[in-house]
């Protein structure tokens, strides 16, 4: 199965961290549910064009955090994650995206007020 | 645990060419790409591991056994794909299969058959009647069928069409799933290296570098697009400047420090492509400091 993971080449965030966070986000948003299989380390390494060492590190951290489970000979699966955890993870994912947007805004030299106005305008647009 | 392959202080001179390897240890379950320009010595490097070329000095051990020793049992644990299939012209694929199946205790008949079917390799034709591309495929089928713990591949995808290459990569990955196989691959295809390799080894002016973890290597470089041209001709970490404002750095932290303290705004930044890094290492003699 292909995972919709997009690695950012411009981010200073280490690759294993990006993978970890994106898999967590997929679990939080329900795109991956309990028991869903994850691609093998080698397969994901090939798809994302990074080394299997990096993927292994991301998987180990996810397993340690209780997000995924590996069973010998069967593969890696999404573990049971409780609702509170999912909410926290969802908040973190949203926070992360807003942070990125702020950094883009800063590159274009927008002030705090201008950013807030922009967000308000977008929220209003969505309501309509 | 015994490592699949270790190399220590190896030197080899052929006419005025000299190849030097300080120390390399290959761990089980890994794929290492050997990268060098044409004639850099990749094939000599591989042939020494197979004891087809004898080193002037130093040690090469395969699963703990010296490749130069009397005991040649290690040979059954290694499949070596040379760039050409030598001495096989009068035989058919089927005859070669039979030979390999007898020589290698780990021979996997089913894997071999699947590979041949998928890549449409005719086994009833004599090797000299096959096109160069099909010959390469048959050679690969035979080496994959050996199902050995160590697989050494010298430019396996050079003459291969795109669908076959994809199938071949898929088979290699499948082999790796068991976790107890180790692959060394020489390739000029950046795509092979990106999709397969965990570690990279460069051959630079006759010297073989240490093993470099692919992602750490890529992350040790960074491209910065600046808003204005920097006032000095070379800023810390800079190894290359293009379009006056694009800086390639091999010490991103130092470069970043400098840019911040000198109020030089960054318009964008990114890790370079593997191709760019390979170019710098092989053509510009960029010294690796990972």
UniProtKB/TrEMBL annotation, chain A:
<dbReference type="InterPro" id="IPR036390">
    <property type="entry name" value="WH_DNA-bd_sf"/>
</dbReference>
<dbReference type="InterPro" id="IPR036388">
    <property type="entry name" value="WH-like_DNA-bd_sf"/>
</dbReference>
<feature type="domain" description="HTH gntR-type">
    <location>
        <begin position="13"/>
        <end position="81"/>
    </location>
</feature>
<dbReference type="Pfam" id="PF00392">
    <property type="entry name" value="GntR"/>
</dbReference>
<dbReference type="GO" id="GO:0003700">
    <property type="term" value="F:DNA-binding transcription factor activity"/>
</dbReference>
<keyword id="KW-0805">Transcription regulation</keyword>
<dbReference type="InterPro" id="IPR000524">
    <property type="entry name" value="Tscrpt_reg_HTH_GntR"/>
</dbReference>
<keyword id="KW-0238">DNA-binding</keyword>
<keyword id="KW-0804">Transcription</keyword>
<dbReference type="GO" id="GO:0003677">
    <property type="term" value="F:DNA binding"/>
</dbReference>
<protein>
    <submittedName>
        <fullName>GntR family transcriptional regulator</fullName>
    </submittedName>
</protein>
From TrEMBL, chain B:
<keyword id="KW-0813">Transport</keyword>
<dbReference type="Pfam" id="PF00005">
    <property type="entry name" value="ABC_tran"/>
</dbReference>
<protein>
    <submittedName>
        <fullName>ABC transporter ATP-binding protein</fullName>
    </submittedName>
</protein>
<dbReference type="InterPro" id="IPR027417">
    <property type="entry name" value="P-loop_NTPase"/>
</dbReference>
<dbReference type="InterPro" id="IPR003593">
    <property type="entry name" value="AAA+_ATPase"/>
</dbReference>
<keyword id="KW-0547">Nucleotide-binding</keyword>
<dbReference type="InterPro" id="IPR051782">
    <property type="entry name" value="ABC_Transporter_VariousFunc"/>
</dbReference>
<feature type="domain" description="ABC transporter">
    <location>
        <begin position="5"/>
        <end position="230"/>
    </location>
</feature>
<dbReference type="GO" id="GO:0005524">
    <property type="term" value="F:ATP binding"/>
</dbReference>
<dbReference type="GO" id="GO:0016887">
    <property type="term" value="F:ATP hydrolysis activity"/>
</dbReference>
<dbReference type="InterPro" id="IPR003439">
    <property type="entry name" value="ABC_transporter-like_ATP-bd"/>
</dbReference>
<keyword id="KW-0067">ATP-binding</keyword>
